[in-house]
Amino acid sequence: MHWPTTLFIAAVVAVTAVELWLDARQIAAIEAHRDRIPAPFAGRLSPEDHRKAADYTVAKVRLSRIGTLINAGVTLGLTVGGGIAAIDTLWRRTGWDEPWLGLAVIATVAAAIGMVGLPLSLLRTFRVEARFGFNRTTPKIFLADLGKGIALAALIGGPLVLAILTLMSRAGKWWWVAAFGCWLAVTLLITWAWPAFIAPLFNRFSPLEDASLKERIEALLARCGFRSSGVFVIDGSRRSAHGNAYFTGIGRHKRIVFFDTLLEQLAASEIEAVLAHELGHFRLRHVRQRLLVSIATMLAGFALLGWLAGRPTFYRVLGVPTPSAHAALILFALVGPVALFFTTPLGSLWSRRHEFAADRFASQHASARDLASALVKLYRDNASTLTPDPLYTAFYYSHPPALERIGRLTDA
Ligand SMILES: [Zn+2]
Question: Could you tell me the pTM of the whole model?
Answer without folding.
Answer: 0.90
